[in-house]
Specification:
four-stranded antiparallel β-sheet; alpha+beta; globular; 4 strands; 40% strand; 2 helices
């Protein structure tokens, strides 16, 4: 359901990337690798998009939590876990 994150990112942005690390029926783990400028608005945008995508696919009770954040050279890696029913 959320496996399209990388494709959608590339349609709208020419910096950074998204990797889907795990994608199961009711959970998805994904990692953004981004320049610092994206960090302020990433959490609310990620949560909003994820909730909408899951709802459109018939899921409910979505939770999105940040699992980790690190710096990789000049980029930042932020990993999220989304779960739903």
């Amino acid at each position: 359901m959320l496996s399209n994150y990388p494709r959608l990112w590339s349609l709208f942005f020419n910096k950074g990337s998204v990797e889907v690390l795990e994608n199961q029926n009711n959970r998805c783990e994904f990692r953004f690798i981004l320049p610092e400028v994206f960090l302020d608005w990433l959490p609310p945008a990620c949560t909003g998009y994820t909730r909408t995508a899951v709802a459109l696919s018939g899921g409910s009770d979505v939770t999105v939590q940040e699992k980790s954040r690190s710096q990789e050279g000049s980029l930042h890696a932020v990993t999220y876990l989304a779960q739903w029913r």
